[in-house]
Amino acid sequence: MADKPYNIGIIGFGAAAKVFHIPLIEVTPELNLYAIVQRNPTSENDASKAHPGIKSYTAAEEMVKDDAVDIAVITTTPASHFELARLALENAKH
User: Fold this and answer.
1) Dist. CA 92–CA 58, nearest whole Å
2) Are 60 and 11 in contact, with CB atoms under 8 Å apart?
3) I need a labelling partner for 16 at 20 to 30 A (CA). Which of 36, 50, 76, 92 fits?
């Protein structure tokens, strides 16, 4: 077990994030939901309102620069995974 929970940054706020990834992170003591990237929040679908207290970003490039993020979880459409994974890895978000 880690000395402290790993801070998780979620990239994408669609069904995969809401139904699977975020609930799993929230019940895992070694993980802390720290940030969510949502490109286009709306009044009906806003990560910062659904999860008050977390950091909210509109671009993955912003989130990966946050030194407090330990791990990036990519929940976007498959076509975007390679570029986002490379961005995360290049910024030590494993």
Assistant:
1) 20
2) yes
3) 92
Arithmetic mean of pLDDT, 51-68: 97
Question: For residue range 33-51, what is the model confidence (pLDDT) as tens digits?
Answer: 999 999 999 999 999 999 9
> What separation in angstroms does the CA of 85 have from each of 26, 27, 63?
22, 24, 13
The answer for 4, left when phi > 0, alpha when psi is -120 to 50, beta otherwise, is beta
Diameter of the chain by CA atoms? 38
Report d(CA 33, CA 21) in Å as an integer.
Answer: 10
Residue with tokens 């998780």: 8
Contact 4, 21 (CB under 8 A): no
